[in-house]
């Protein structure tokens, strides 16, 4: 027998082609005179990479570009002012977590912590309490953009499909209800295999609008590369940054591997 589902409930989930719903970018990548959407409202995204690839440095650079409207470093475009930004840390010590917050503040030249930026340290919490706190943060502050730097720490078993589904569903629900964007950070499996860790990594791969890979340059490890591993929209060209006085700064450095790929594309067979 068919399930007794209320017809009104069904209508709540029905879409029509006449509906006026537009994709609203929160952050774009500037390339020449055009731009490509990096993060948009109502979506989730993920950064991944090997341990110590400078993922958090990369995210502080990206997050700082959203603190105010305009073009940052001639690379990032934020078209909205006063966005409420939340950064959640689960791995670092308290001292390191405070340094992350200060770094985001200093990149944009703020002497004081901006009113639209808050960060939270959940290292000492259990996975279930971290989940509850993040939900409360979203309910009370209703952020436009939230980074969860250490999404793995929201589950007890990264390979448990039920927990992975529960966390990814919670993220999708929040972005739908608040029309915001949630960015997650997760490690890759160690070694040559560049898959995101566990069932949770697989869920994030399937659900994310954008997957960023952060990796150290193999020929010059002072530089890290931010590249589009997977994107629903148009991919942007990878770019590099380095650390100067504990602050990430964009660099004009071109990795040798990138040069090889570019040369190979330009070769025309006879």
Quick tags:
7 helices; Rossmann fold; alpha/beta; nine-stranded mixed sheet; 270 residues
Secondary-structure blueprint:
Elements: H1 7-12, E1 25-31, E2 34-40, E3 43-49, H2 55-64, E4 70-72, E5 76-78, E6 85-89, H3 94-107, E7 117-121, H4 127-141, E8 145-149, H5 161-178, E9 181-187, H6 198-207, E10 210-216, E11 223-231, E12 239-244, E13 247-251, H7 256-266
Parallel strand pairs: 3-9, 3-10, 6-7, 6-8, 8-9
Antiparallel strand pairs: 1-2, 1-5, 4-5, 10-11, 11-12, 12-13
What would you say this structure looks like, in words?
With 270 residues, the protein is α/β, with parallel strands linked by helices. It has one domain: P-loop containing nucleotide triphosphate hydrolases (Rossmann fold). Helix content is 31%, strand content 28%. The chain has seven helices and 13 strands. It has helices at 7-12, 55-64, 94-107, 127-141, 161-178, 198-207, 256-266; strands at residues 25-31, 34-40, 43-49, 70-72, 76-78, 85-89, 117-121, 145-149, 181-187, 210-216, 223-231, 239-244, 247-251. The strands form two sheets. A nine-stranded mixed sheet has the order 7-6-8-9-3-10-11-12-13, with helices on both faces. The protein has a four-stranded antiparallel sheet with strand order 2-1-5-4, with no helix packed on it. Helix 5 links the parallel strand 8 (145-149) and strand 9 (181-187). Helix 2 (55-64) packs across helix 3 (94-107) and helix 5 packs parallel to helix 6. The longest helix has 18 residues, at 161-178. It is globular and about 60 Å long. It starts with 6 loop residues before the first helix and ends with a helix.
């Amino acid at each position: 027998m068919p399930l007794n589902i209320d017809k009104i409930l069904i209508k709540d989930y029905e879409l029509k082609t006449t509906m006026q719903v537009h994709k609203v970018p929160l952050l774009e990548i500037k390339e020449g005179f055009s731009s490509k959407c990096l993060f948009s409202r109502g979506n989730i995204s993920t950064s991944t990479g090997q341990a110590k690839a400078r993922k958090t440095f990369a995210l502080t650079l990206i997050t700082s570009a959203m603190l105010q409207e305009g073009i940052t470093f001639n690379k990032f475009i934020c078209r909205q002012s006063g966005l409420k930004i939340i950064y959640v840390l689960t791995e670092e010590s308290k001292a390191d977590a405070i340094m992350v917050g200060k770094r985001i503040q200093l990149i944009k030249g703020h002497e004081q912590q901006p009113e639209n930026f808050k960060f939270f340290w959940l290292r000492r919490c259990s996975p279930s309490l971290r989940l509850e706190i993040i939900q409360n943060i979203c309910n009370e502050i209703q952020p436009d953009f939230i980074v969860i730097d250490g999404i793995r720490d929201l589950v007890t078993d990264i390979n448990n499909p039920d927990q992975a589904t529960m966390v990814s569903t919670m993220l999708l629900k929040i972005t739908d209800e608040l029309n915001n964007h949630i960015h997650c950070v997760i490690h890759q499996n160690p070694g040559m295999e560049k898959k995101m860790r566990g069932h949770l990594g697989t869920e994030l791969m399937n659900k994310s609008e954008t997957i960023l890979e952060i990796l150290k340059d193999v020929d010059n490890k002072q530089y890290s590369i931010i590249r589009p591993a997977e994107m629903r929209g148009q991919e942007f060209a990878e770019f590099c940054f380095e650390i100067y006085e504990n602050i990430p700064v964009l660099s004009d450095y071109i990795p040798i591997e990138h040069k090889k790929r570019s040369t190979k594309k330009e070769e025309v067979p006879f």
